[in-house]
Amino acid sequence: MSATDWYAHKSLENGVFWIQERFYESGNRANIWLIRGSHQDVVIDTGLGLRSLPEYINAKGLLGDDAKRKNPLLAIATHVHFDHSGGLHQFQQVGVHKAEVDALANGDNFETVTWLSDREIVEDPAPGWRARQYRVKAVTPTHILQEGDVINLGDRQLTVLHMPGHSRGSICLHDKESKMLFSGDVVYDGSMIDWLPYSRIGDYVRSCERLVEMVKKEEIDQVMPGHYNTFGSKRLHRLASNYIAGAGICHRASACVVKSIAGLALRASNSQSACL
């Protein structure tokens, strides 16, 4: 299957493209965001990497032919989980938060929580492809990100906000001028996951408190999440507030149990994959 068949995209306002993997039918299917700037373009999250994302972007002419864009396309992962980081190795420039640099550079498929099944891939990307063979490929980041860093695209800037909880290196990217937040898996319009090996509920609560404060300060109008559909500031406030309210003792206890089980399952799954 070609890259042009594997992906599909929508053009949104303000130089933003929404890309998805057509044949990955799962709640884990991540949104891929392409943002055009006057001097630098950025991809936020890269999907599974089963077909070439750069090839698709070029074939569809999403970057145009503006000579001012001298820098290679920069791919940034909001965190290193497999559904967001699998395609990073396809890019010359790669950015990730400093807390997850080692996991990405070492190809740590435990921390990337690689968990993919054949039934989620409804059309094989290549003959004989099987999910058990899938691994996130190691890549050494060229951009090690931390809180407050600014990604300068020329006519727009994206500020890095470290928002741990879902993972230890989870970030959001905030376009302050347009009041647009690329939130990764910190928040999306669904059940927020806080029971993975490097999830921490206390961190997640503090990250959600920060999001609530940003809404109160009218710093966010639109959220471009890591999964599902976009939403506005009112919905963001409700999602973040609901998580804070629900993160009590009972929730923490049940999450701890699920976290232990998930960790064991991930280790077993990735140990088997490594032996194939």
Automatic annotation (TrEMBL):
Database matches in InterPro entries: Metallo-B-lactamas, NDM-1-like, RibonucZ/Hydroxyglut_hydro
A Pfam family this chain is assigned to? Lactamase_B
Boundaries of each Metallo-beta-lactamase domain copy?
A: 29-227
UniProt name for this protein = Metallo-beta-lactamase domain-containing protein 2
